[in-house]
Amino acid sequence: MNWLFIHQNFPxxxxxVARHFADAGDNVVFITQQAQRRLDRVRKIVYRPAxxxxxxxxxVRDFEAAIDNALAVAQVCDGLKREGFRPDMVIGHNGxxxxxxxxxxWPNVPLLGYFEFFYRTSGVxxxxxxxxxxxxxxxxxxxxxxxVNLLGLExxxxxxxxxxxxxxxxxxRYRRQLSVIHEGIDxxxxxxxxxxxxxxxxxxxxxxxxxxxxxxARNLEPYRGFHVFTRALPGLLRRCPQARVLIVGGDDVSxxxxxxxxxTWREQLLAELDGRLDLGxxxxxxxIPYAQYLAVLQISxxxxxxxxxxxxxxxxxxxxxxxxxxxxxxxxxVEEVATDGENACLIDFFDTEALVExxxxxxxxxxxxxxxxxxxxxxxxxxxxxxxxxxxxxxxxLKRLTRRLAPAADKAAAGVPTAAH
Length: 421
Known about the structure:
Rossmann fold; six-stranded parallel beta sheet
């Protein structure tokens, strides 16, 4: 079969399924903006969207960028069509507009869209953190930002989203065409390892025998509770004089606003806490290779995961899969997976005292939490394992969609009238 994947990053959420089809001998093409990475037997086509000087209203500049992406992808699709390539299915992420015009190239080819987050004006991320209240116009801004979401929902034949909470953010009339299937965690590779070790530059090496508190995010920012975590560190380090803190993540901003008092949130929080932190025991590792990141999770005594009501991070499930003891925020995306006292310790997102107390207690009495660690890993095996749960579910969805949509597409291509899907 011919499969066409579309995602500005590569391979992103499609790493496992694209590799599966390539290994099976199918023809796999991937349209992306990412030039560096490779997957064996996957043909990657890199596109560069045209970016023009914009005089449009600020609310629609993201929309303009999405249209630029969509036009560039459509041009690649037209080139593939001229080559004689016709996909049996197109699978793509809707968030950056890339899939909007695919149907204009191949009207009768089924399109499965990835729908990650529908912006809400209240009750989710926008008005969650009182330290960063929304501006008066923010509700209108995020409502406008859903334009790409809504166009994508109309363009796709079906949709997929990784969690039930994310599905519930979409308008009720669209939920029936969104399947909840997570990308999956490779629990064979992401597993406990009592022999794991992390070497710190110019410092000691750490293992499971050390008191290690870990925190991981793509970027260190409030959406992932970096400000709350950092403000808890003075009290935590006083309570636990042997503990070291390993912080993984970059200094850019993936979500939300940029800092106003320093170039990065890391610098702003460190300046705020100047003189109150033992920086000899706090190690900012930045963005690190995946193997080293796994080792960080595997030596973790306590892993802290904080998030706004927003997209659930892969790192949360990966930390659970390594058997880490999780102290996490009691926010809806986390509560879909974790239950306090069973497979994690849940606290109020803003309660730094509770964060210090739960982490300190776990460091002081690690033997009390062995069952919780095992339960955390078992949760991921039972609900999110790549090979036994998620990939089979995803392949099953593709098979059902191919059976249901392809015959109608073939009839339409032959000029036979069909019922609307």
